[in-house]
Amino acid sequence: MQNLELKSYKLENFKLKSGKVVSLNLSYLAFGNLNKDKSNVILYPTRYAGTHLEQGYLINDKYPINPKDFFIIIPNMFCNGVSSSPSNSPKNIQGPNFPLITILDNVRAQKTLLKKVFEIESLKLVIGWSMGGQQAMQWASYYSNCVENMISMCGHAKTTDHTYVFLEGVYAALTSDPQWNKGNYEEQPNNGKTTMARVWAGWAHGQDWFREKKYIEDGYKNADELLDKLWNKIYYHRDANDLLAMIRTWQEHDISKNDLFQNDFSKSLQSISAKTILMPGKNDLYFPPEDNEIELNDISNGELRVIPSSYGHYAGAGKSKEDLDFINRAIADLIS
Amino acid sequence: MQNLELKSYKLENFKLKSGKVVSLNLSYLAFGNLNKDKSNVILYPTRYAGTHLEQGYLINDKYPINPKDFFIIIPNMFCNGVSSSPSNSPKNIQGPNFPLITILDNVRAQKTLLKKVFEIESLKLVIGWSMGGQQAMQWASYYSNCVENMISMCGHAKTTDHTYVFLEGVYAALTSDPQWNKGNYEEQPNNGKTTMARVWAGWAHGQDWFREKKYIEDGYKNADELLDKLWNKIYYHRDANDLLAMIRTWQEHDISKNDLFQNDFSKSLQSISAKTILMPGKNDLYFPPEDNEIELNDISNGELRVIPSSYGHYAGAGKSKEDLDFINRAIADLIS
What we know:
The structure is a homodimer of 336-residue chains.
Chain A: E1 7-15, E2 21-32, E3 41-43, E4 71-75, H1 103-118, E5 125-129, H2 131-142, E6 149-153, H3 161-175, H4 190-211, H5 214-217, H6 223-231, H7 240-252, H8 265-270, E7 275-279, H9 289-296, E8 302-304, H10 321-335
């Protein structure tokens, strides 16, 4: 991903779901081979606190997502510090003044990009992990006619109350730092980021991962070393307001909260016509399989494939060869 | 519990597992009818951030734990603000200077109390929920000849790495408050307690409870109201150093970390001769059933009864009639 040219599309006077009108930059990678009828497009949005740089694990000449055969677009989610975000915006929408962005706002912006820059009308596949998986589900529902196949890895169609509360906890942890100053900080509130990270650690890995002492495989002697070496500074290179804005995007997520579905959650799921695979991790604490299972009651062409992984939420990140193979098999079943 | 006389036993020069020697007060309730051969004693230790006042839900003339038939002793766990704690100790061991207390320290103090005050040598039943359940397991292992029956509700024989990390998160949340000042506060760091509470909320209830919207049954419209009305101030009446000290007790827990078992975890479990029921809640995020299941491989006379409850960790708190009935059935099976 590092060697590809990052491009940016300017959305002028873009109307957000909240009604606010703003100009936003959508940064993206686009690469691979676009065929003549533009029927081989894969859209692969980013996750919480991630960027295009961390999406490479599913892209490879030997994998089903193969740039020789497909045209791949990786849009950076708003507020991730690459696309328009609290940290990189003009003064009027800077920092704590940045507007709330929803998953649907992201998806609508991506749709505009595809249309205006590439004249692409439909997707062979939309796929994502975590908040990327939320965007995939929003795409397949809101633009159901445009999506042929959809994979949501560790993602839900609606943020559950439990996840909302978990996110309130990490939000409270970051904002506990007096240096945060309601978002008007002079220097990054890094102590707050460490607090947030130490809270997040237990949620991210899940019980199985610890029980099987996977941290040793990952190079950490024990839980303390894991926290100190992996977690404490994990968010230091991200801006605090960006991190908080993405939490609000996540909490707000519900594919039915829009003009089209008017909060009718079943209807928003029933609209999904794409061939769908929902792939939760078996021990994902914030996207547990049970919620995907309930969603599938309303998805006519959908299938549940629980990733039999000990990696908790990271099941969808392909951290082990087994997980990666499992994910690639599902992708191949849809597009190969 | 409110009407019973709280008594206190002074342990002079009590040697802690750490080697430190301190004088400690062990506060307790003792009530019911002690029979002649003192064979009808039930020991029922307290939980994290709880006291004798919250133990009443399993005690009733119509329940198996019936004061007419049994002699019931409820010892307050050290650091809970009633027995010796950072908040109520003489200057030399006050606040942040209070020594680390282990579950075994609690259990050894309780054993001394039983012997010295009541000349009680053995227990008909030791039972507890959460950290009370940890104490029950430590009793049945360390004093295996003295325990006839044991029930651990939502408790493990050893704090798992995952729970250790979850606890590091809540510890970080409380201590993020600058007013905490490494334990040398002038006024309670209540902002830190709120941060900790908001982090704890997702862990305590679990996903099922939210999915089934049990918060509505409990009188809260939505997740925000639950956090604001139930959680925000839930720890305000506890002392911050007490709360932190109990976290350290919890993290340190391992029934094999002592002179008798020398870190041989299997051996410490194998020593349990009591008729044992381990009762995790099916969706308890910090005491998941899987770990009890593993423990039972080494307990010869033990049984797993997963409380089929949506109450997460509160499964053992008897919040619903079904949960309470389930727990009482198990108690009756052992002692009635």
